[in-house]
Amino acid sequence: MAVVDGVRRVRAGRIALYLTLGAISVVMIVPFVWMLLTSVKTPADIAAFPVRILPTKWAFGNYADALQAAPFATYARNSFVIAASHTVLNVVIASMAGYALARLRFRGSQLIFLGFVGALMIPTYTKILPEFLIVRFMPLFGGNDITGQGGTGWLDTWWALIIPGAVSPFSVFLFRQFYLDLPVELEEAARLDGLGELGIYARIMTPLVKPAFITVALLTFEGSWNNFLWPLLVTKSDSLRVIQVGLSVFRTENDTQWAFLMAGTTLATVPMVVLFLIGQRYFVQGFATAGIK
Amino acid sequence: MTGTMVPERVREVVAGPATNQPRRLLRSRRRAGLLMVAPALLHALIWIGIPLVAAVVLSFTSYDVLTPPRFAGLDNFRELVHDDVFRRAVLNTSVYTFFTVPVAMTIALLIALMLNSKLTGRAIFRTAIFIPQVTATIAVALVWLWIYDPRSGLANAILSFLGLDGPNWLSSTSWAMPAVIMVGIWQGIGLKMLIYLAALQSLPGELYEAASVDGASKVRQFFSLTVPLLKPATFFVFVTSVIGAFQSFDQVYILTDGGPANSTTMMTYEIYKSAFREFRMGYACAQSLVLFALLLMLTLVNRRITGGDRGSR
């Protein structure tokens, strides 16, 4: 009897566990479902009261109309160009720096590493105002003279969107951690074979930390695609607008067009969800070892 | 952080002290090292080093971008002390941080514990809970803006289905903050859960077997084994989450614009407003230094309480 009770209790516990986890998962997913459903509703369905969960008529044309109402395709392209540039630049520059700090210890390298770690603690909002001023007063750009006066500098240019985010101390930090764990014998053997330090980095050590590259690449791409405040501050023209800024502007200019807005939001979120589902292993590894978004 | 130093020490033992190597080789390594670190270092000096110094310098000036900065001594800081809106922002940021960090961490730990068992479909649950984390805050805040719509939004539709009268969420001084906090918890819980899950999976199973043999109950095991063993993870999640929560901006920008009646304004939002709506760069820099100082203080206090990150990884 006692055994049967025990089995029953375990089974009840299992069911409760599944129900709880199921409920939590539903709460996490529902906003996305609501977004998708809204994006294919007619204005009448959206305005209906009481609220209709499912559309009475599936208006898939909303997507084409949304692209007409605002250049979401251009916004998405801009976001993609910036995110891809940040990814390539970060992976190349930060991996070199991370490698040097991990394996080629030279006078001052410890200090430089501590500087990068310290930089992780500095809030974006402390840096962003002077960064804006540097961009604004960039000498010899955008009509500025050598002292940075007279024009608009890098404001409203690709430079401002790409250069400040080209390397993050966080990427340097991550790469250093990954390179640290490699065996020193490999490096020594390659050196005996007459390979230069750059060659050892590029041809011997880097192929061994490929997962690290994918992790940093995915995190950088995601962070860049989702970034909002910086592109908001440094761009004005529609042709340079990124998707997140485009969405927020569309919302203020077209107050109640929820179907179009949700179509645009779908465009802004779906690529990241797909990217996550494909590279889940690396995302999880990266976030779990790093934790900072 | 101490744990991460170990490989270096091991490496030194294996490779021998650097001085035993030929001078020529050392020189070429140093040159290569400097060369490889130079681009990242230069970038950091321009986009982090200079801005940090500039923020401190500008905080003692009055500066509207169009005319050169004027030295203002401690005026900005004096004004800050009496700035009721900024004080409100500090309070709001603290409330927001309390709910989206310690409270959300507890929930995340509970979910991680539930997921840390042999469970079919575990990956599906984990993915579902994590997805809000990878999507842009601006985009999901827009979705929540629509969910919170008092008339046609999903939130009040569900409440009315349950026979309840939903509030005017974002235009109510008492409900706007909870609404913003809910979005924060919803988006941030996945990452905290994931780090806890990774930490739980690396706990030594033998300890638990020994504890079971000694007759320690599951609850006792949780408090005497799991909680202390998770300390490094807790410290890590806490610090990174506080840094994130203190810098929340996007959801406020979309959902409430800091209102109604400053009930949801945050430090970051006041910095943004001072700098880019009122063009008071000096004052905004002073505000940003307060944000920085509070963050540092919280990190140090937490390091004290949890015994720091000793033994991490």
Question: Can you walk me through this structure?
Answer:
The complex is a heterodimer of chains A (293) and B (313). Chain A is built from 15 helices and no strands. Chain A has helices at 2-39, 43-47, 62-69, 72-103, 109-121, 124-136, 158-162, 169-180, 184-192, 197-205, 210-226, 229-234, 243-253, 258-278, 280-290. In chain A, 44% of the residues are buried. In chain B, a hairpin with a 7-residue loop joins β1 (61-62) and β2 (70-71). The model of chain B is unreliable at 1-19 (pLDDT under 50). Chain B contains 14 helices and 2 strands, in the order ααββαααααααααααα. Helices cover 72% and strands 1% of the residues of chain B. Chain B has 2 domains: 18-71, no CATH class; 77-305, MetI-like (MetI-like fold). Chain B has 313 residues and is mainly alpha-helical. In chain B, α11 (231-246) packs antiparallel against α14. Classes of the chains: A mainly alpha (293), B mainly alpha (313). At the A-B interface, α1, α4, α5, α6 and α8 of A face α1, α2, α4, α5 and α6 of B.
Helix/strand layout:
The complex is a heterodimer of chains A (293) and B (313).
Chain A: H1 2-39, H2 43-47, H3 62-69, H4 72-103, H5 109-121, H6 124-136, H7 158-162, H8 169-180, H9 184-192, H10 197-205, H11 210-226, H12 229-234, H13 243-253, H14 258-278, H15 280-290
Helix pairs in contact in A: 1-14, 3-14, 4-8, 4-11, 4-13, 5-8, 8-11, 9-10, 11-14, 11-15, 13-14
Chain B: H1 2-15, H2 23-58, E1 61-62, E2 70-71, H3 75-81, H4 84-115, H5 122-134, H6 137-147, H7 154-161, H8 176-201, H9 205-213, H10 218-229, H11 231-246, H12 250-255, H13 267-276, H14 281-305
Antiparallel strand pairs in B: 1-2
